[in-house]
């Protein structure tokens, strides 16, 4: 029999399965059978708001580095004059830290808490090397 996946929550130390007619039907067909149940904690992926803030951060950092006179040559390589763009901030700064620190290749695979971890390392490193610090894009910071 093919494994069946049902979603639910643990509430008051009891498993509550989301309403699903397939579950009731499956229980009927498995009456008297020995079963094995696997429970996995679902970890939330980054939110759409975090995704927008992440890409806004790439834009703000690229603009700030360019405005401060730091092209990619001065920041990471000596043999190429390339202005910063949101895309090369992501590929040359963010992603290497993300991969080294979290062993996650794609930003789409980041969980909600992962973004803060990578941001803290990147912002500290860029700040120490260039004096450019970009606060994380959020409503409070954008209003100021």
SSE arrangement:
Blueprint: E1 8-11, E2 14-17, H1 21-29, H2 48-67, H3 72-75, H4 86-102, H5 114-130, H6 139-143
Q: What percent strand? A: 5-15%
Q: For the residues shown, what is the average pLDDT?
A: 85
How far is the first residue's CA from the last residue's CA? 58 Å
Could you name the ranges where pLDDT drops below 50 across 5 or more consecutive residues? none
Strand sequence of the main sheet, in spatial order? 1-2
Question: What does this protein structure show overall?
Answer:
The protein is mainly α and 144 residues long. The chain has a domain at 48-143. Helix content is 50%, strand content 6%. The protein has helices at 21-29, 48-67, 72-75, 86-102, 114-130, 139-143, and strands at 8-11, 14-17. Strands 1-2 form a two-stranded antiparallel sheet. Helix 2 (48-67) crosses helix 4 (86-102) and helix 4 crosses helix 5 (114-130). The model has no long low-confidence stretch (mean pLDDT 85).
């Amino acid at each position: 029999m093919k494994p069946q996946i049902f979603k639910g929550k643990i509430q008051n130390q009891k498993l509550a399965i989301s309403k699903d007619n397939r579950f009731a039907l499956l229980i009927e067909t498995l009456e008297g059978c020995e079963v094995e149940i696997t429970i996995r904690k679902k970890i939330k992926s980054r939110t759409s708001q975090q995704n927008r803030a992440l890409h806004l951060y790439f834009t703000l950092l690229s603009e700030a580095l360019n405005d401060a006179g730091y092209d990619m040559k001065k920041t990471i390589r000596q043999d190429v004059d390339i202005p910063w763009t949101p895309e090369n901030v992501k590929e040359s700064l963010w992603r290497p830290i993300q991969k080294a620190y979290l062993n996650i290749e794609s930003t789409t695979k980041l969980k909600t808490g992962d973004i803060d971890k990578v941001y803290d390392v990147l912002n500290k490193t860029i700040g120490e090397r260039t004096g450019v610090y970009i606060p994380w894009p959020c409503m409070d910071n954008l209003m100021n």
